[in-house]
Design goal:
- By secondary structure, the protein is mainly α.
- It has helices at about 5-20, 30-40, 65-75; strands at about 50-55, 60-65.
- A hairpin with a 4-residue loop joins strand 1 and strand 2 (about 60-65).
- A two-stranded antiparallel sheet has the order 1-2.
- The chain is extended and about 55 Å long.
- The longest helix is centred in the N-terminal third of the chain and has 18 residues, at about 5-20.
Length: about 90
């Protein structure tokens, strides 16, 4: 069987539809963001909670594990990249 560009497009569309069913809808407000984060129970493959802090009053969210945070606390230098230049819609 030959695979054409149309086949690839149909496969991508099918994957997108299947994935969309497993994820929550995009939140429409900041309160929805916090609610969804509480419900998701984000864990690493080692079973650690990945949502370390979710403060609804101050709109602060920390995505990391206690292990990662402890590791950073005991370093003299921390090098970061451009990932921190991006911020989700409801955060600054």
């Amino acid at each position: 069987m030959d695979v054409t560009l149309n086949n690839v497009n149909y496969i991508c569309i099918s994957i997108f539809r299947a994935r969309r069913k497993t994820l929550p809808q995009l939140p429409k407000s900041i309160s929805e963001v916090h609610s969804v984060l509480i419900l998701l129970q984000l864990n690493t493959y080692k079973g650690e909670n990945f949502l370390l802090y979710n403060n609804e009053t101050e709109n602060i969210v920390y995505f990391t594990t206690k292990t990662n945070f402890k590791f950073l606390c005991f370093r003299d230098r921390i090098f970061i990249n451009g990932i921190f230049e991006y911020c989700a819609k409801f955060f600054l």
